[in-house]
């Protein structure tokens, strides 16, 4: 059951991701509210994924997660590097914080600088691409590529709209 929660939660999180870069640019209040809800659910499912992964695979141990991350990188790249786990922690904190900000102060959220918006979503897309396309295969890799493309397209669309509004 635990592994099922790990897998289903990441699928649901991935499906919710594109709402983040797209949502602020939507022209209707209803569209933005739906995007905000989907973005928030994506963040929540990602938090479930992280927690269930730590429970099922790492026995709630940062040291075990660090070692496993290093093992996976060594298997793929020939050199162990576990510090990527800290990028996963950052990803979790930023997505959660971003969702909270969108609910707490939507007007400020929509006015944030384009640079901050692009850097954040660039980081997200980098992480999603690596976690799904580089480190996975099969259906996960395929869906990860689609989510990366959808997220990048949404980011480009929002950036263009943001420039026009300024």
Tag the structure with descriptive keywords.
single chain, 166 residues, mainly alpha, 8 helices, 84% helix, globular
How many distinct beta strands?
Answer: 0
Low-confidence stretches: none
Oligomer class: single chain
Domain module count: 1
SSE-based structural type:
mainly alpha
Q: What's the N-to-C terminus distance?
A: 50 Å
What's the mean pLDDT score? Answer: 92
What sort of overall outline do the alpha carbons produce when their principal axes are compared? globular
The amount of beta strand, in percent, is under 5%
- The helix count comes to 8
- The sequence of SSEs as H and E is HHHHHHHH
- Main sheet attributes: strand count, strand direction, barrel closure: none
Helix content: over 70%
Supply Rg. 16 Å
Structure notes:
There is one protein chain. The chain is mainly alpha-helical and 166 residues long. The chain has one domain (2-165). Helix content is 84%, strand content 0%. Helix 3 (29-56) runs antiparallel to helix 5 and helix 7 packs antiparallel against helix 8. The longest helix is centred in the first third of the chain and has 28 residues, at 29-56. It is globular. The termini are far apart.
SSE diagram, text form:
Layout: H1 2-16, H2 19-22, H3 29-56, H4 62-77, H5 84-104, H6 106-111, H7 114-134, H8 138-165
Helix pairs in contact: 1-3, 3-5, 5-7, 7-8
Short description:
By secondary structure, the protein is mainly alpha-helical. The chain is 84% helix and 0% strand.
